[in-house]
Amino acid sequence: MELDQAICERARLSRDPRFDGRFFIGVTSTGIYCRPICPANSPKEKNVRYYPSAAAAAEAGFRPCLRCRPETSPGTPAWLGSSTTVSRALRLIEENGLGEVSLELLAERLGIGSRQLRRLFLKHLGAPPVAVIQTRRLHFAKRLIDETDLPFTEAALASGFGSIRRFNASFQELYGRTPTELRALARKAGVGRGEGYQFRLPFRAPYDWNALLQFLIPRAIPGVEDINEDRYRRTISLGGKRGHFEVRMHPRGDALDLRIEFPDARSLIVIVDRVKSLFDLRADPSDIRARLERDPMLARRVAAHPGLRVPGAWDGFELSVRAILGQQVSVKGATTLAGRLVVAFGEPYDGGGALTHIFPTPAVLAGTDYSSVGLTWQRADAIKQLAGAVRDGEIKFAGVVDPERFIARLRELPGIGDWTAQYIAMRALSEPDAFPASDLWLVRTAGVGNPQQLEARAEQWRPWRAYAAMHLWQNEEKDANDLLHVYADSDRTAVAGRR
Predict the structure, then answer these.
(1) pTM score, two decimals?
(2) Active site amino acids
(3) How far is CA 348 from the centre of its chain?
């Protein structure tokens, strides 16, 4: 990725937070690399080198700064210019947790040669895939050292190291200190820890936390999710183990605070990455704003809701079921149906307060009788067909490298048309350019006459059409959750309904 030296220099000297995670600074006189916001005295320009990723700085021989902690930066932006291949490769790496991922396997999944993939990583990230994966592992391990009381043996396994010896050696080599010394430094610096596993998840400001919660509150699945005006809680299940987490805005307003209660530390990085997707923490609002505000109609809305995010999903199957339940009924009605579904078929769980169940699995929902829940036979059949396809591996929400094929496959299922498929891609895949153009509320709010005209106008919003949809769904006079949305799936005539 070409870095503009003049822009990087201005951002470094001003410690501009908008550039945090967009590049890293190597200081030749110290051998350390930092974030642009590092509070340390600015080095002389002749001693500075700029790198597009932490992995690139590490590959060049620099070690991470202990003061600004590069492992806690917002990370690589979700969209790397025109490189959808690199973006999707990073998504595959994240979905794999900290398991071993070979360059050849990654390239095969993406449908390109391993040499080409390596060239793309070097072009956009300044480092090969193996270095990116290794840096990711070390950064997560450093966060476990700093932000938890996890014993080092468990921290080593949780961060993908095969042994405590390798774990200790890696930190001695990279930081010149042992994990014990690093943890002592973190405690001295006041890095927080508390009950359960706690992490600070930074984001690029601005971030409209209130708008995101207001979108999620009425759609919360009873028993599974518990959301109020300042925090989000939910139950989770991974690898046969169950737990829950809670997310709040940090008091300083520059990060989300995540607290996890889960019995297996090896799942922590998967949980953290899913939470980042759920709350769209990898987005770069400056890039999104720059594109959307070119349209005068959207410019006013972007100014009214700076930092508006697209809510993701903890689980793609769960989100898809919730989307089907929301067809042709109110938000409140769909939430009621979701609660009945969970009570009837979910696993009981004692998470305290309103967290009472784990959402039912595809295997359970594929072979059940829905008569006790009160669903129409069409909606029950749609859920059953979707659940069967997911259970049998015909539809997967992880490892998707071609969203268009994914959307086309969803539309082959009964009861799922283009609106529902696009909405699922928007939230379950965190696809920034997914766009339910057949939503007649979007048509009306955009001031066009039909979905075809909306599609044409939306071309100028690429690759951020999902964010444009969120802005158009906002209402300046009423709470966005009270809006009646009218949509038309491609396999049915226009119907009044709510998301």
Answers:
(1) 0.90
(2) 34, 439
(3) 27
